[in-house]
Amino acid sequence: MKKLTKMVYFVLSVLISFETLAQKPVYTNPIGMQAYTFRGSWGNGIEATLDTIKSLGVTEMEGGPIKGITTEELRKQLDKRGIKMVSIGADYKQIVASTAETIKNCKILGATYVMVPWIPHNGAFTLENAKQAVTDFNKVGKELKAAGITFTYHNHGYEFEPYEDGTLFDYIVKNTNPEYVSFEMDVLWTAFPGQDPAKLLLKYPTRFKLMHLKDLKKGVVGNLSGGTPTTNDVALGTGSIDIPAVLKAAKKVGVKHYFIEDESPSYLKQIPVTVAYIKGIKE
C-alpha cells in the first residue's frame, strides 16, 4: 500500500511538472515604458535615467522630446541603448493647430504612433466636447496617416459619462474614422470610472493599438473626474484590476505596444515588481 501511495504521488508530481512546463506566458511583447513615469528623474540626468530604464529590460518607449537635450541627441542616446521610441505624446490644442512639429519629432525619433492624452473641457465632459473631439481627431488623424503615422487617443476616465445606451467614449469610437483614428487604453483610467478594461477591448477589437499598463489600489472608489491621488497607482498585480484578463483580451484583439506608466512617487520601487509580475503571468 505504501509503495502504491508513493507511486501515485510520483505520477501526480510528474503530471503537475508537465502541466507547469506546458503553460505559456501571456505577455510576450517587448517591455515598454512611458517616459512620464520617470518625470522625477530626468532632471537629475537624462543619460543616467536612460541607463536605469535600460537596466529594467525596457526596449520600447513612449514619450517624445525631453527638456535638456535636443531631439536629435535623444535619438542617438536611445539608439545607443537599444531603445526604440515607438510613440510620442502630443498636446490636443497644439496638434489641432498644426501637425507639422509632431510629424517632425516623429521622424527624428523614429516613432510611428502619436497619442493625445487629454481633451480640454470644463467641468463634466459633454456631448459637445465629444463632438468637437471627433471632428478634430478625424482631421488630425488623416494628416498624420499621410505622413505614415498612426493617431491614437488615450482615454482618461471622464469620457465614460453616460450617453444614450452607452457612454461618450462609445460616441467617440463610433464617430471617428477607423482609418484615421485609433486608441490607446489606459487600464487604470478605464477601471477607475467603473468600466471593465477587458470587456471594452473586446467590444472594439480593431480600435486599440496601444496600452498603458497600470493598476489601481484596492478599495479606491472611482469617479468620472479623470483624476485620483498618485499614491493610488500601485505595482501591477497588487491592485484591484484583473491584469491577466486585460492582457489576454489585449493579446486577442492585437494591441501592438504596451507601456508601463507608474504615476506613484514610489515608481522606482514599483516598476521592478510590475515587470516581474507581467513576465510571470501564465496561460
Task: Tell me what the structure shows.
- The chain is globular.
- It has 283 residues and is α/β, with parallel strands linked by helices.
- It has one domain: Divalent-metal-dependent TIM barrel enzymes (TIM Barrel, Alpha-Beta Barrel), CATH 3.20.20.150.
- The protein is built from 11 helices and 12 strands.
- It has helices at residues 2-22, 46-55, 71-80, 92-97, 100-109, 127-146, 168-175, 188-191, 197-203, 243-253, 267-280, and strands at residues 31-34, 58-63, 84-89, 113-116, 150-154, 162-163, 166-167, 181-186, 208-213, 215-216, 233-234, 257-260.
- Strand 2 (58-63), helix 3 (71-80) and strand 3 form a beta-alpha-beta unit.
- The strands form 3 sheets. It has an 8-stranded parallel sheet. A two-stranded antiparallel ribbon has the order 6-7. The protein has a two-stranded antiparallel sheet with strand order 10-11.
| Helix fraction by DSSP (H/I, runs of at least 4) | 40-55%
Could you give a short account of the major beta sheet?
Answer: 8 strands, parallel
CATH architecture annotation name:
Alpha-Beta Barrel
Radius of gyration: 21 Å
Low-confidence stretches: none
How many discrete domains? Answer: 1
For the structure shown, list the relevant keywords.
eight-stranded parallel beta sheet; 283 residues; 17% strand; 43% helix; TIM Barrel; alpha/beta
